[in-house]
Amino acid sequence: MAHKKRRQQIKSLSAVFRAAIVAVALGTPVAAQDMAFKQSVAAATYGSEHLASFYRDNAYQPIWTGDGPEFQARRAALIAAMRNTDVHGLPQGRYDTAALIEQMSQAKTRQDLAQVEVTLSRAFLKLARDLQSGILRPSDIDSEFMVRKVDRADPVATLTALMQAEPNAYMRSLAPASPQYRALQKEKINLEALLAQGGWGAGVPSGKLELGDEGQGVVALRNRLVAMGYMRPNAGREFDTAMQSAVQAFQAAHGLEQDGVAGPGTIEELNRSVSDRLKSVIVALERERWLPEERGTRHVLVNQTDFSAKIVDDGRITFETRAVIGKNTHDRQSPEFSDEMEHMVINPSWYVPRSIIGKEYLPKLQANPYAVSHLEITDRRGRVVNRGAVDFTQYSRRNFPFAMRQPPSTKNALGLVKFMFPNKYNIYLHDTPQKSLFARETRAFSHGCIRLAQPFDFAYALLAKQEEDPKAFFHRVLNTGRETKVDLEQNVPVHLIYRTAFVGADGKAQFRRDVYGRDAKIWNALNRAGVVLPGVQS
Fold this sequence. Notes:
This protein is an alpha+beta fold. It contains 18 helices and 14 strands. The protein has helices at 2-27, 30-44, 49-57, 69-83, 97-105, 110-133, 138-141, 155-164, 167-173, 179-196, 216-227, 241-253, 264-270, 274-290, 354-367, 455-463, 470-478, 518-528; strands at 298-303, 308-313, 316-326, 337-346, 350-351, 376-378, 403-406, 417-420, 429-430, 444-446, 450-452, 484-497, 501-503, 509-511.
């Protein structure tokens, strides 16, 4: 019934526009009508450079308010798209469809039609921008670490493309076409249905449950796993091998250690509500809109919340390794951005960043000039400084005149290879001698760079595109012991993302902890913009 009523409204609006055009035409010359319309459009677009440019180049001809079928199709497609924004996790109240329809229905003169014309274009451009690149700007959420630059489509090009396309198809094309975006939309629908049905039921009591346990806690765990789809319904009261496998499957889907034990961390994640997971999916949809449309036929994807780095070829993951990301402190978190990997350095030196010198090493040198002896101290010409001849107490973080470098070695902080995508944040991927960190469930330990568990294999995969025997080539260079830059014949896009909800290759949703608390900030911003969960009023 609702769809039928909407179609009737759109149809009646066409009649309104036709009547307005005819009413004006009865007593006014065509040239005067056109001039009045054009002048009104020009006045309505004043202050909007893009709209003014579009209509000026288009000789102020309408694209919405004519009475032909193409105009009706555009209006109907826009209204339908504005009413359907909820499937994208966008706030419906952001697009006052009712007010827009009311304004159209009240149009009586050519000046009124001109106002409606420009209002429709403004509404369309707002909707198009939101669908293409999100309603938030990352830097407004966190200007220090969410530094991703979001591509905004050119408004004139967007309006021009609409004129040349089938309206409904074009409206559908505005949102990201990535498989991940579509899968997240599907998961959003699934979670909304679960929420309407009451969620997953009662939670699991805190504590620890493992193989062989019995009692009410095990029953609660079983019921939760059944409700979440990890176990088939059964009346068992014992933590058996089937439950252990179910717990491991849950742990795998939530980035937890897959030990099959329902300890405090696992139970905490089990007890997350459907609402919490739905918020993560809605935030993930917004984040997906921030990413560049063209991500590279081959690209590197680092998901910080997943502590992983992947190489993706033609949409398929061809290599994956564990990663360590920045510490959760105000100055060590890993940032989010995209760039292009240009080269790798085998047997790298570590050139200590100024921030680390001032904060960590200068105090040690002031206490003992021979401290941190694994690092060379060099002057502006690169000459090694005699530590005994320097009074380090006379320097502060601001005026410290020396550089510090750790020469290539197996103990080098960067390990034996680093992967460079030069950027102003001084972030890159690299090896590390601290291999034990990769066994941890939560791996946020670095100064901001991304450490790889299998850097050699990562290098082989990158070099496979340009070397007949990439492994032999890599080790031939490595065995020289000399710092060596190896250019990639074709740059590889690198995307450092932060995704607490995503859909795996098997089509099933996975969730991760909000390590830095960024998703909570995004949800709050979306909520302030009008995004609410079903049945919840802001």
